[in-house]
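Appendix B. Chain record.
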Amino acid sequence: MNGAATNTRIASILGLRSNADNSGALEFYTANLGTNTLRMRIDENGNVGINQTTPAFTLDVTGNFRTTGAKTGFLSDIAQNDGDEPLEKGDLVSISFNGVDVYMTGNNIPIFKVAKSVNKNDINIIGVVFDKSPESPKNNESDNSLINKGEHAIIATQNSVTFLKATDENGKILPGDYLTASSKAGYAMKADENSIVSVGRALEALNSTEGMISAFMQITTSNAISNINEERLLEEESSKIEKLEDDYKIDLKEVKQSKASKETKLERIKKKLQLEGTASITATDYMERINGSVIIRLG
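Structure tokens predicted for this chain:
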């Protein structure tokens, strides 16, 4: 559109057609002092590019952006599968040691390389596969959701809510438990005192040996992880005690449920954990060793 005669600025919208396959695109231009600049492009695939002439995603922005509304969903990263094993939705992945992939078209952000996590308590875990990247070529396999070596994946990383594969290898997973890599490729497990890095926290319980659960992704490196999970386990054990026999013995002392508060019982269980099972218990009791600690179950 043209303004007044004294105004040389021009804004325009162009409809483009490719004669080869009858595809079309839209380009939006603004001008300053007579100089036209492409500001936005919607390509034939519906991808929108802002300050980007070849958008590779549904919304591809070059430059900073700001929003005053709430965020729904999560921010993600693009990574290249550098492992020999295909990736799929929910797989826990670790950083590869083979550097980064080529820079993405139109910006200077490197594509990092990942592989399916295969080691228990792997300190190189970085995130979870959400989906196949839209620019990855489709293969001839029946399941096009698989991300083969060299293809790109969308990875849920920091402050993301997503689904991941989990196993009860390290005990039952409850909402709020910290999660880390298990010995089963691509699966997370409950973190403990041997876990240096956590990939996030469970948002729901794992009610089977293995399966998919929702989790809040947040890479954490702290010895406090095991302490928090232990406190949660102790609370669970303490609540069970109130439902058991009236008489039981901990640390060679007879205790009546009617005289011992929940807090007192919890402290006694903690003390028993520290003793590593050296004190005697009654014949009706039995001990289960979990992650190097002795949990008293009274029956």
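Further analysis of this model is presented in Appendix C.
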